[in-house]
Amino acid sequence: MSSSFGKIFFLCLVFLFSDSAISQNNHKEFKSDIFSMMKGNSTFQSRQKTRKFFRILNSNNLAPRTKSNIYIVLDEFDSRGLSFNNHYIKFFNLFLSCQESEKRKIVFNKLLDFLSENKSTYTNIQLKHLFTDINQFLTLNILNAENNFTWKCVGDFDFSFEVNGNPYFKFINSELSLFNSTDTVNIFNVVGRYDIVENIFYGEAGSSHFFNDDIFIDFQFNQFILNLKQTFFDIENVSMSSTGLVASISSGIYINKLTSSDQYPVFISYLDNIKSNIFNNFTIVSSVQTKGPNFFFNNSVNPIELRFNDDKIEYVFYSNGFKLKDNQMIGSEVAFSFQNQLGSIYHPSVRFSYDDNEKKIF
Question: Which residues have CB under 8 Å from 356's CB, separation 6+?
Fold first, then answer.
């Protein structure tokens, strides 16, 4: 009985070690194939990184599951006939950069788990970009970089997958930036997720602002979508509040872009019955539009009334539109009336300008 058991145990050991030896030989052959692919088709730096990749892979520093998943992924590369420069080295680069922190290792292992269990989810082209894009964010915080602009996000993040298999970064209280050599657009306190394959940012919340010496404008965003392949975007259902020369609160559309112009950001209110206080003593009810530091007050149906009181006299100016620029309120084809206890004066059409620095009407 004991003799039979000993034979069975011996056969199991022989089978186990022979299977392990076969696996190791296969992996050695696989390594040899990759080094053959590098000959005459790689840079010195790529060859160095490949050797470093295999040194870590063959060490005792990696968990068995991680090693197993890596070989599953590389076997899939081999079965697809993928190239060294477009796929293998990009995968090696991601692996090596993820060894530098525990947070990155978590991202890499989540990606490995998914790739090993979902081999056909991504096309060869998607895989080519996927490893580079993930590595680019983990090392530089860059979500997407084109020839003349870059999107970047800095803050706390998590990594996961959509139902369709697309990987995404989830952000909380982060700063999203669009920039180039001449301009920068920032969205603060961002909550949302970035689809790495589609280059789409799905925002749940965020904020931005514009300010100068005379005015501060705050924009609050909710439920917005940004295409990070573009240098411009618009967001609906934005809450705007301004203080300083203009005190106003409204909801509308926010538009911004990379530009050398001072006419951005743009905000356009949905309603045309917004009450605004200007220079602390003028009141106006109209739509509100901003272009950079400039405000526009309009009404497409009825004339707008711009009112203020001075020395017991009420001044009322009527126009289809007024513009606030450089501390001056300007209107063309303006009717006006002056009223006090003794009577009123009316004029049907004048050019109107009020300079707040000089406190004069021209």
Answer: 245, 279, 327, 328, 329
